[in-house]
């Protein structure tokens, strides 16, 4: 598995991966409102890295480097639990200065466990009744 910076040629595949991943795992969200174009809007001005194998993108992370913030980390549903997320998380951490932050939707128990298993700690729960999320921090 190779971790590399994304380029514009990757965007069509990344759009599909982002949409499919969210539709399958965001059980609390209205999937009818999700579009392929969400990827472009949700990663604007972010540094994107991809995990790739056999010329297929298995997952990606988008980082807002000025704030040392992981905005998105998504793995294609077919490759969940196979180390893709761990490699993307490690590469993201190496790209930024600690402490590093992210926000994780409180209802996303699988993601919460993933981050906590990798040394992230919950700091504060924010948001409204519709969508609460945890601000999480990583620092060693």
Give the end-to-end Cα distance, rounded to a whole number of Å.
26 Å
Topology, number of strands: 7
Using only C-alpha atoms, the radius of gyration works out to 14 Å
Mean pLDDT across all residues, rounded?
93
Which strands sit side by side, in order, in the main sheet? 1-2-3-4-5-7-6
Outline the biggest β-sheet: 7 strands, mixed
Specify the helix fraction band: 25-40%
Helix/sheet category: alpha+beta
* CATH hierarchy class name: Alpha Beta
How does the overall form come out from the CA principal axes?
Answer: globular
CATH architecture classification name = 3-Layer(aba) Sandwich
- Into which percentage range does the β-strand content fall? 25-35%
Low-confidence stretches: none
Pattern of helices and strands: EHHEEEHEHEE
The CATH topology is given as Aminopeptidase
Counting structural domains, the number is 1
- According to CATH, the homologous superfamily is Gcn5-related N-acetyltransferase (GNAT)
With helices defined by DSSP (H or I, 4 residues minimum), what is the helix count?
4
Organism: Baia soyae
Keywords: Acyltransferase, Ribonucleoprotein, Ribosomal protein, Transferase
Protein name: Ribosomal protein S18 acetylase RimI-like enzyme
GO molecular function: acyltransferase activity, transferring groups other than amino-acyl groups
Could you please describe the fold and organization of this structure?
- The protein has 140 residues and is an alpha+beta fold.
- The protein has one domain: Gcn5-related N-acetyltransferase (GNAT) (Aminopeptidase, 3-Layer(aba) Sandwich), CATH 3.40.630.30.
- It is 29% helix and 34% strand.
- It has helices spanning 11-25, 38-42, 84-95, 109-117, and strands spanning 2-5, 47-53, 56-64, 69-75, 100-105, 121-127, 132-138.
- It has a seven-stranded mixed beta sheet, with helices on both faces.
- Strand 6 (121-127) and strand 7 (132-138) form a beta hairpin.
- The relative contact order is 0.15.
- The model has no long low-confidence stretch (mean pLDDT 93).
- It comes from Baia soyae.
- This is Ribosomal protein S18 acetylase RimI-like enzyme.
- Residues 1-140 form the N-acetyltransferase domain.
- GO terms for molecular function: acyltransferase activity, transferring groups other than amino-acyl groups.
- One of its GO terms (cellular component) is ribosome.
């Amino acid at each position: 598995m190779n971790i590399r910076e994304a380029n514009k040629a990757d965007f069509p595949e990344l759009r599909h991966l982002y949409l499919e991943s969210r539709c399958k795992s965001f059980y609390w969200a209205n999937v009818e409102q999700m579009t392929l174009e969400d990827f472009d809007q949700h990663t604007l001005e972010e540094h994107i890295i991809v995990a790739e194998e056999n010329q297929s993108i298995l997952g990606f992370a988008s980082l807002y480097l000025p704030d040392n913030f992981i905005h998105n980390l998504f793995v294609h549903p077919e490759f969940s639990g196979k180390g893709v997320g761990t490699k993307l998380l490690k590469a993201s951490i190496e790209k930024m200065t600690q402490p590093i932050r992210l926000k994780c939707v409180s209802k996303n128990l699988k993601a919460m466990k993933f981050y906590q298993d990798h040394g992230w700690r919950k700091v504060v729960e924010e948001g409204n009744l519709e969508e609460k999320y945890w601000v999480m921090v990583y620092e060693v």
